[in-house]
Write a structure and sequence with these properties.
This protein is mainly alpha-helical. It has 2 domains: 331 residues, 3-Layer(aba) Sandwich (Rossmann fold); 125 residues, no CATH class. 61% of the residues lie in helices and 5% in strands. It contains 22 helices and 5 strands. Helix 6 crosses helix 10 and helix 18 packs parallel to helix 22. The chain is globular, with a radius of gyration of 24 Å. About 3% of the residues have low confidence.
């Protein structure tokens, strides 16, 4: 089986060096050489990520050095609940509130970047990230709401994720970042610094908005968050039936097996660890939030149940907003209702809500977008004197995105239509491109075409494939945009 990209692959090389230095010593006893291809793939991706984010990483380091003690002055709302309790569904629904700014996957997986590199990652990861999460059918993509836990892991290894996803035999060591107990003063400072800096960068992208975070690990340390954000934090906590949570977590660990770097622990050991962590996490959350509420002059926690959120999302969220003193608006209710309708099982085909006008629109959107892209491509080639074959990736992204915006609900059929017109764009560019870029005609034109397309595989062929795949990925997505967009 071919290795799959690791969930921490975009972490920089220095982070991977520290991770492997600790995990590698024991991992050989749990799998040996079988995991070398996974590590090699992760390091290859990490190398590219390191180079891409390095300029902004250095700039941000200077920014933080000038203001080392600065904290975000925004209000912060945190989604809590043990893993597999429905935190992602709650997070997505809350992200429909456009007064919130929340981390996206392109940001959380590459936290060392910032505006430019996050934008690039949003584009280049699209062909490779699945439309749904590996463990379930929940929508997923670089622009979808993300857990800040991945940012903490990828930025400075201050997260329990390495023990949950990569090295299960070391779960106890990494779980210290779940409870924040047993940490050295240096480790605690690293955790605070990593979270604060990531939140500051995310908040800087949307001035004036409340920061929305989601991280099941935060359930075990709400007191530390209240201290870090100086009391400007409130929690929306989701609860689910205990047996369902444990069963879902066991399945989660099975489905994420391709990401591990050593063999799994015995099932009975995993079950015991999950049961203990679940009970301990909820106990800590209850005790610490009780203290926070007693010391605060405003509500700190709103509690919702998973079953209620699934059956009555509008009423359940409105009740949580009322508890925390947040304003509920007609616009938010409309967006929550629309997202809930689209996210229900069986809604991928749009049902009766899709109009004939939309079907006609999608037939015209892709070719019109392809024509505009062709004109732009030839114009840029003429101005620069270069073929600019690498822009095929960008044109595929534009064709897919425009078509999806018109159709509103993607499908494999729409994706195939977008991919076909991306190929048509390339075909239409083959003949005029040599002339508009370099003025080549006659034998020179034929020679240039043969060199670009008919010789051994080159970067041109890679970009064509990426452009077609990107266009198909966008056109086949169930939603035109993630919640809150």
């Amino acid at each position: 089986m071919l290795p799959v990209p690791n969930l921490l692959s975009l972490a920089p090389l220095d982070v991977w060096a520290r991770l492997l230095a600790r995990g590698g010593r024991r991992a050989w006893k749990g799998g040996g050489l079988r995991y070398v291809p996974r590590i090699a793939l992760a390091l290859a991706i990490s190398t590219l990520s390191t180079l891409l984010t390095l300029p902004e990483r250095l700039l941000c380091a200077g920014w933080f050095a000038l203001r080392p003690r600065a904290r975000t002055d925004r209000e912060v709302v945190v989604v809590t609940g043990y893993y597999r309790s429905g935190t992602t569904h709650l997070h997505n629904l809350l992200s429909c509130d456009r007064r919130f700014v929340t981390p996206r996957w392109a940001q959380a997986l590459a936290p060392h970047g910032f505006v430019a590199s996050w934008g690039v990652f949003n584009l280049i990861t699209l062909p490779f990230l699945p439309n749904t999460r590996p463990q379930d059918d929940v929508p997923f993509g670089p622009a979808w709401p993300a857990e800040d836990d991945f940012a903490l892991a990828a930025s400075d290894l201050v997260s329990p994720l390495p023990g949950r996803l990569l090295y299960p035999s070391q779960r106890a060591h990494w779980a210290r970042f779940h409870t924040l107990e047993g940490l050295t003063s240096s480790e605690r400072a690293r955790w605070e610094r990593a979270l604060t800096r990531f939140v500051r960068k995310v908040a800087a992208l949307r001035p004036g908005r409340t920061v929305l975070l989601k991280n099941p690990a935060h359930t075990a340390h709400p007191g530390a968050l209240a201290e870090l954000f100086e009391g400007r934090v409130r929690f929306i906590h989701i609860e689910r039936e205990r047996a369902a949570v444990l069963d879902s977590n066991r399945r989660l660990h099975e489905r994420l097996a391709p990401h591990r770097l050593e063999d799994a622990v015995p099932p009975e050991q995993l079950t015991a660890e999950l049961e203990h962590e679940l009970d301990d996490t909820l106990t800590r959350f209850s005790a610490q939030t009780t203290q926070l509420e007693a010391a605060s002059d405003r509500p700190v926690v709103a509690r919702v149940r998973f079953d209620d959120l699934v059956s009555e999302p509008v009423g359940t969220l409105r009740g949580a907003y009322e508890t925390l003193g947040l304003a509920w608006t007609d616009e938010l209710e409309r967006d929550v209702t629309r997202y809930h309708a689209l996210s229900r099982p069986g809604s991928a085909n749009g049902g009766s809500s899709r109009s004939r006008r939309s079907s006609v629109g999608v037939l015209l959107a892709a070719p019109l977008a392809a024509c505009v892209c062709l004109a732009a491509w030839l114009g840029l080639a003429h101005q620069t004197g270069q073929r600019l074959d690498t822009t095929v990736w960008l044109w595929g992204w534009v064709i897919g995105l425009v078509t999806l915006r018109v159709e509103r609900i993607g499908s494999p059929r729409v994706g195939a239509w977008c991919a076909a017109w991306t190929l048509a764009l390339v075909a239409a560019s083959i003949w005029p491109l040599p002339e508009v870029s370099a003025g080549w005609t006659g034998p020179d034109r034929i020679r240039n075409i043969r060199t670009a397309y008919l010789n051994k595989p080159t970067s041109v062929h890679v970009m064509i494939v990426l452009g077609v795949v990107t266009s198909w990925r966008l056109g086949s997505r169930r939603h035109a945009s993630p919640p809150g967009r």
